[in-house]
Design brief:
Blueprint: H1 10-19, H2 26-35, H3 41-53, E1 57-62, E2 74-77, H4 81-96, H5 100-105, E3 111-114, E4 125-136, E5 139-148, H6 155-171, H7 176-182, H8 187-197, H9 202-209, H10 213-226, H11 232-241
């Protein structure tokens, strides 16, 4: 599907003062998305959308699965895993209080929420996060964005991000079956994946398994290559979705 976005509006030009002076243009964003291909299309596309919005981290979830047990609702994320796990309870509680009409009205409309006071955040990241909801067919998704402290995100850019996130999600559904069939993790790789999901460092896993730290890092690198993920958090999210841990 080809997508064309109109020239930058006056509202978007004004919003640059909110995001940052060097914010990515719409034209640059479209060029980046058009240049992405392969199994990592969704993750790379979400990284581009996060940068365009002026945010630092993204978390894409399936809203229809939020009230299920575990973290099966996570689609893709570069949030720290402990932060995703901490927020899961809050999302389940808040989503259950919203009626269907409110959920429909919230589509493509950015909302702001606050992280729990006891949540541990990455250095320099603000406690509030922006949430965007959109549908792909009958499936409802939410994109949660973290930004730097005291950074305000442009509503115009967030609207663009919501629309393009829906496009990315619909365009990559054909990869789901391929990803689930193509990865083949060894027993050692699964062990490492389990322990990083438990929050263990490479040094700690090395002590547990009785092998060197470098070997552990090699196993984890292999896991990320096979699962088309770029960070440990993404690899863990992939493992949770596919019932590997």
């Amino acid at each position: 599907m080809d997508m064309q976005i109109s020239q930058i509006s006056k509202g978007d030009r004004d919003a640059r003062s909110i995001v940052s002076a060097g914010a990515m243009s719409r034209e640059h964003l479209i060029l980046q998305l058009n240049a992405i291909s392969g199994a990592a299309y969704l993750q790379a596309g979400l990284h581009a959308l996060t940068s365009y919005a002026g945010a630092t981290h993204y978390l894409l979830v399936r809203s229809d699965l939020i009230q299920e047990s575990g973290l099966d609702f996570v689609v893709s994320s570069d949030w720290p895993f402990d932060l995703v796990r901490r927020l899961a309870t809050e999302l389940t509680s808040s989503y259950g209080r919203i009626g269907e009409l409110e959920k429909c009205m919230a589509l493509f409309q950015s909302s702001i929420a606050m992280m729990p006071d006891d949540a541990s955040l990455p250095v320099g990241v603000g406690r509030q996060y922006h949430a965007l909801s959109f549908n792909v067919g009958r499936t409802r998704f939410s994109l949660l964005l973290l930004a730097g402290e005291a950074v305000m995100l442009s509503p115009e850019r967030l609207r663009d991000v919501g629309l393009l996130a829906g496009y990315l999600a619909s365009s990559t559904r054909c990869f789901e079956g391929k990803l689930e069939r193509d990865f083949d993790l060894t027993e050692r790789e699964l062990e490492c994946l389990f322990w990083i999901a438990e929050g263990k460092t490479s040094d700690e896993i090395a002590m547990i398994l009785g092998i060197s730290r470098n070997t552990i890092n090699n196993y984890i690198t292999s896991v990320m290559r096979k699962t088309a993920t770029k960070t440990r958090s993404e690899a863990i999210a992939f493992a949770v979705r596919n019932n590997l841990v």
